[in-house]
Amino acid sequence: MQVTRRVFDSSRKEHKIVANIYTPTIPTNTQALPKNSKPVTLFLTHGTGFHKELWEPVLHQLFAHRSPAWTITSAVAIDMCSHGDSAVLNRATLADERRASWFTHARDVLRVLDQLHQEGGRRSFVGIGHSWGAGVLLLAESLSPMTFACLLPTEAVLFLRYMEDEKYCGMIERRKWLFADEQEARDYFTKHKLFKAWDQRCLELHIRHGLENNTTGEQGEGGVLALKCRPQSEAAVYRGADYASLYTTLRLWRVRCPTGFLVGRKSLQSPEAYVRKITEGMADRRLEVVEGAGHLLVLEKPDAAAEHYARFLDDMVPRSDARREIDFGRAKL
């Protein structure tokens, strides 16, 4: 697949959103698709502390998949404003952000989608998000119903209470984020318990794309390389869950598009029984479980995640237009 870097306006003048646009190596001729094959554009959001490139192992699998029901014409993977390449671009305006509202991030998603529609006409977007990114997609859809043709939230962060865990945020802010060189970074990630279960491809992508040269000299002699997503920015996202995640959970009924939830069997964040319970009032939802995976399942088992996504799309894309027509008709009543 081919990759093009783009910069979009966010919902705020001071911030930009950087995205990778992935397309098939051989461009898709939508006029030559099989009769019942629907062209779709994937829109992907990452988890807290991560970045857009970590979706590449999943995307390689999905672009290679052949289905009579759907064809991917392109995939848009974004870096949230304080993460990845967006953080590099927005560095000067992020320094004092202590709480990053998920409502703002949801509006950023809607703003980018609006620009994509303006550039390429109306199209069917399939939202795929992980963790915080999944929660933000659900929030965006609840704020603007029928934005997505269907959604595939993976290990979505959906709380049933106001969240405020300053102790945990303090731990995040004290994390190591400066490294003398790439080898020190590699040794750190390889030995850290958070990364031990990762697929090797994802780990390599994180080392390659999650770091930047520490040209600003932050914290003096701390290191030559720095995480693009600073610990302070990661903690700000956790603080931003406060009312936003609860709001999203209580308004899942507003998500009318076909939605396929994916959770890890070993997940403590999104246990199957919990997700099944809080989503039971949704109009059109399915839930599948990835065996042997935890909360970071798209980074631990990207191939398995892609297989589940393909099954979801086989089921959901053919009826996504019908779902929209039903809800659009209700909206006019």
UniProtKB/TrEMBL annotation:
Gene3D superfamilies: alpha/beta hydrolase
Identification of the protein by name: AB hydrolase-1 domain-containing protein
Coiled coil (residue ranges): none
Domain spans labelled AB hydrolase-1: 43-307
GO cellular component, one term: membrane
